[in-house]
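Quick one: structure tokens for this chain, please?
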Amino acid sequence: MFQGETAITVDDKGRLAIPTAYRELVARICDNHLVSAYNPFEQGCLWLFPASAWEQVRDQVNALPSVKAVHRALQMKLVGAAAALELDSAGRVLLPASQRAAAGIEKRAVLLGMGNKFELWSEQAHVAKIRQTIGEDEISADMSALRL
């Protein structure tokens, strides 16, 4: 579905333009409706889901027993902080100021197509993450099976 890396600019009002290569797809699969949420695993990153994909994630996360603190934290970051976004006529979405601030997303950011969702990274966090290498001791059995 979504794939690729795009450097983007966030305007002074907090709007970003969805790259034209994705606009038709976003219009077709989710009627121009996205949902933004915190990436609970990586600092400096927001997740942008098509509304239909988001509903599945939301329901799975909400089904977790809230008696565990880690479940409540995941529910807070994904469901509690989720924001509905709609593309305007120029193909832009307005990101909540609280999400931009928490993720450190300012003027320059990077949008990654990650299959079923986008990841929106602050430029600094993206550069830091890309510069990290995967060490041999971090390779999982699933990764070992890949033919790269």
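The longest strand covers residues 2-9.
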